[in-house]
Amino acid sequence: MKNIDLSGKKALVTGGSQGIGAEICMQLAQCGADVFINYNTSRDKAEELAKEIRGRHGVNVTYGGANVSNAKEVEAMFLQMDDEMGAIDILVNNAGCESVVHVLDMEEKDWDRVVDVNLKGPFLCAQQAGQRMENSGGGVIINISSIHDVVPRKGLIHYCSAKAGLKMFSKCLSLELADKNIRVISIAPGAIETNMNREEIAKFGKDKFENWIPQGRIGEVADVAHTVVFMASDLAGYINGADIYVDGAYMNHTIQYDPRPKRKKE
Ligand code: NAP
């Protein structure tokens, strides 16, 4: 991504200390952006990552704790960013969580946690960022959704509902912020190997999992991070309110009992 120049831009990535978020921080920095890494519980990982990014790319990196579903903590985080970075040009709402529970066993706290982190968090952060971007002349807000914003899955009714809400949230937000020169993009990964699903992939077997994905491989964190970097850049300046699926065609592969027709030469 060497040709994308984000020098001078200031980015905040929620849930930035591990998984997809950490790679997004790294790739934004590689393109020259200063980065604010948000963490909830993984402070040590945020500190370590900040050191690594500074060492590799020489940009300004800072980090701050906040539970994205808590309005007071979110506001305090943005005030910290005001003090330490002075502005925000790019917000990546990446923080997310899930748990696999049958709907008939799901407790109110399971539902609330997953919906609050995946849907309310992006609202709270987008509001804080949007107010600042309105005053500074523009920016980009990227929401990390999931193929489960349209693909239903058993045991994930709270997560699928929250991500479906996030998809519509992105569209409404783009309408309200377009005249302020703020673009909003939804980036929806398929299966990307991280702590969120490592056990699940191992349980099914990696080979089997990869057979379900038409491109024949599980996604890497860089697949998502590269998309974020492009969408955050001026090269994507007329893309607004769009949903981008980064999934190797996984979400289109619902008819799995029907094998690929063989080519005549095979
Ligand atoms: P991960 O490795 O489990 O990381 C999740 C991140 O979210 C962590 O950094 C965590 O921070 C943060 N987080 C959780 N609750 C939070 C809260 N209340 N406040 C602030 N941060 C919080 O998961 P991942 O796979 O990288 O997922 C990143 C995003 O991609 C999520 O939105 C997820 O839904 C989406 N996604 C992932 C996949 C996949 O296959 N992996 C597929 C589709 C979509 P702490 O560690 O500091 O607590």
How many separate helices? 8
CATH class: Alpha Beta
- The total number of structural domains is 1
- Helix and strand composition category: alpha/beta
Determine Rg (CA atoms, Å). Answer: 19 Å
For the largest sheet, list the strands in their spatial order.
Answer: 3-2-1-4-5-6-7
Total strands: 7
Distinct bound molecules: NADP nicotinamide-adenine-dinucleotide phosphate
Fourth-level CATH superfamily: NAD(P)-binding Rossmann-like Domain
How would you describe this structure to a colleague?
- The protein is an alpha/beta fold and 266 residues long.
- The protein has a single domain (10-252), classed as NAD(P)-binding Rossmann-like Domain (Rossmann fold, 3-Layer(aba) Sandwich), CATH 3.40.50.
- The protein contains eight helices and seven strands, in the order E-H-E-H-E-H-E-H-E-H-E-H-H-H-E.
- It has helices at residues 19-30, 43-57, 71-85, 108-136, 157-177, 198-204, 206-211, 221-232, and strands at residues 10-13, 34-39, 61-65, 90-93, 139-144, 182-189, 243-246.
- A seven-stranded parallel beta sheet has the order 3-2-1-4-5-6-7, sandwiched between helices.
- Helix 2 (43-57) links the parallel strand 2 and strand 3.
- Helix 1 packs parallel to helix 2 (43-57) and helix 1 packs across helix 8.
